[in-house]
Amino acid sequence: MSTRLRRHLTTPAVIATLLALLYVWVHARPLDSIEQRTLNPTYITDAVTQHLWLTSVSTVLVLVLALGGGILLTRPALRRLAPLVTGLANIGQAAPAIGLLVLLSLWWGIGFGTAVMGMVAYSVLPVLRNTIVGIQQVDAPVVDAARGLGMGSSAVLFRVELPLAVPVILAGIRTALVFNVGVGTLATFVNAGGLGDMIVNGIKLQRTPVLVTGAVLVASLALLIDWLGSVVEDRFRTR
Question: Where does the UniProt annotation place the signal sequence (predicted)?
């Protein structure tokens, strides 16, 4: 078995082992009525689906805003604005996530939209920064050679700069995805659901199986998404 294949199989094996141990541990315990209601398959499936939906929507918005913004900020006309925009994105990431959600809820109220905007503000920086850095690090002689072959600005961007910057950009997207899974647990505080509901219910009701199940599911989801990102990143890097 090659080293790459062994590395790609390790994370799914760890996730499967973690979930199997959780299943055995929970079913070996005498659950009271509250724990049985919370740990039923329908409730868990709904919580995971809500969490994935929050993560997916916020990630799509991050990709649109950060990829588009990062490309524009590497063009000659807007290049001087790059430090200002990345500084503003830094503010969003430097602020505590729960504080950011509270401030957004004061302006827009609670709900799904507020949770998504908080997640976008918190995770836009890695993609924006890596897009700018990835394009800027393309060797100038390579770009000049492409222009010398008669390529226009769009052709240079899409056929030379972006393909060479893809590994760096993918690393930023992978980081943003893991951020989104973690910050998504705070969506429960603005009534947007997700796996944060299980964790908070476990704490409030002092039910350890509920708390542990929510935490393990969030960790497993983050590991799974990080693994998928690493597979895609590895594929593009080896081209």
Answer: none
Pick the CATH number of 3-237 from 3.90.226.10, 1.10.10.10, 1.10.3720.10, 3.40.630.30: 1.10.3720.10
Residue found under tokens 């899974």: 181
- pTM assigned to the model: 0.84
Residues in the chain: 239
Q: Which of 180, 78, 169 is nearest to 128 (CA)?
A: 169
Burial grade of 48 (CB within 10 A; 0-12, 13-18, 19 or more) = middle
Rounded to 5°, angle at Cα 75 from 138 and 121: 95
Return the structure tokens found at 171. 């690393």
Summarize pLDDT for 120-162 with one digit per residue, the tens.
888 888 898 899 989 988 888 888 888 888 888 888 888 889 8
